[in-house]
Amino acid sequence: MKALVIGGAGYIGSHMVKTLQRAGHEVAVFDNFSTGHREAIEDVKIYEGDLQAAAEIDPVLSGYRPDLVLHFAARSLVAESMVDPALYHANNTCGVMTLLDGMRRHKLDRLVFSSTAAVYGFPQQRRIDESHPTAPINTYGWSKLFCESMISDYCRAYGLRAAVLRYFNASGADPSGTIGEAHEPETHLIPNVLRAAVGRADKVTVFGKDHDTRDGYCVRDYIHVNDLADAHLLAYDALNRADQPDFQLYNLGNGQGFSVIEVLRAAEAVVGRTIPMELADRRAGDPPVLVAGAGKARSILGWTPKIPELHRIIATAWRWHQEQRY
Ligand SMILES: NC(=O)c1ccc[n+]([C@@H]2O[C@H](COP(=O)([O-])OP(=O)(O)OC[C@H]3O[C@@H](n4cnc5c(N)ncnc54)[C@H](O)[C@@H]3O)[C@@H](O)[C@H]2O)c1
Ligand SMILES: O=c1ccn([C@@H]2O[C@H](COP(=O)(O)OP(=O)(O)O[C@H]3O[C@H](CO)[C@@H](O)[C@H](O)[C@H]3O)[C@@H](O)[C@H]2O)c(=O)[nH]1
């Protein structure tokens, strides 16, 4: 299979590239390197370009002619999306529109798209499955929901077959330690905890102890990045199955929630030392609990996460953070 990974130099995209390579597929990456890293991808054909420009993505679609397009490229900082919504609609929403039109023009009909639990907004039930109403509470979530809606329309009207994967909290790193999470600024909990552990930050700031949860700290469902990548390959198989619809939607998580303080304590156990922390006010727009109901991915895709335990997820991230290469 020939795969084109858009946003393949980023955190999740680069793990996808490795997973595709290990499975023996031919891979190319399209990226503008706005948040991605050249060092994160090797032995792969690289097209440098911006998805917002049809003139830059079109020749790649027509020249490389992938069997499958995997689309990871997006801006994904919730706070930034609230102060600069135009950036999110231009990059995320219009980017998908440009991609869909290019795929239609060049008769490419298989797409897997990275979406997010942020489309659900405040949870109304303990585990969020795909039937939960969508009601984003930030522009980032809305930009992804608009993308999903466009993808669904193109499936209905133009013969596209697509899988939309709504990730919960992507975490961990490839067990080889060669690639991992390197955002600047880093806003995610586990890398911030491990930066404090390794001394790249004085401490980790914990946002709020007054949430409506069992211990007052926010609860999230952390899912290993390679388990996410595996789900993409299984989704491609499902796109080729006649018994599955043209537009498919799956939540991806372990179905288990951990509070911020539980993550911190688990990280301390992994690294073998106390990690300095300070308590701050709640971060605007943080829902108290986000835990996936991911039974559909398990039953239809046959997806079983291989690194579901929090301490193992953190251990892979710790390996990366100790010798961070980029
Ligand atoms: N990290 C998470 O926990 C999480 C959770 C849910 C969903 N997601 C989604 O998964 C995807 C990947 O997230 P990530 O954490 O790896 O992000 P990332 O920022 O590490 O990677 C995004 C990649 O896309 C590239 N890119 C961005 N805009 C582009 C454009 N216009 N043209 C070409 N390339 C462009 C960047 O350079 C980068 O390499 C995103 O779509 C994100 O919304 C992430
Ligand atoms: O330095 C930090 C960073 C985070 N947190 C808290 O830790 C939890 C997790 O935060 P973070 O790692 O930033 O993830 P989320 O805000 O849950 O968002 C991630 O997971 C969502 C899906 O669940 C996706 O939509 C987003 O793209 C992705 O960034 C939240 O309660 C934060 O308030 C801290 O206390 N300190």
From TrEMBL:
User: Mind listing the UniProt keywords for this protein, alphabetically?
Assistant: Carbohydrate metabolism, Isomerase, NAD
Kindly list the GO molecular function terms attached to this UniProt entry. UDP-glucose 4-epimerase activity
Q: Which cofactor does it need?
A: NAD(+)
Q: In which pathway does it act?
A: Carbohydrate metabolism; galactose metabolism
- One Pfam family for this entry, by name? Epimerase
Q: Give the InterPro entries listed for this entry.
A: Epimerase_deHydtase, NAD(P)-bd_dom_sf, UDP_G4E
Q: Which GO biological-process labels does this protein carry? A: galactose catabolic process via UDP-galactose, Leloir pathway
Q: Where is the NAD-dependent epimerase/dehydratase domain?
A: 3-253
Report the superkingdom from the record: Bacteria
Catalytic activities: UDP-alpha-D-glucose = UDP-alpha-D-galactose
Enzyme Commission (EC) number: 5.1.3.2
PANTHER family named in the record: UDP-ARABINOSE 4-EPIMERASE 1, UDP-GLUCOSE 4-EPIMERASE
Recorded family membership: Belongs to the NAD(P)-dependent epimerase/dehydratase family.
Outline the subunit composition: Homodimer.
Record protein name field: UDP-glucose 4-epimerase
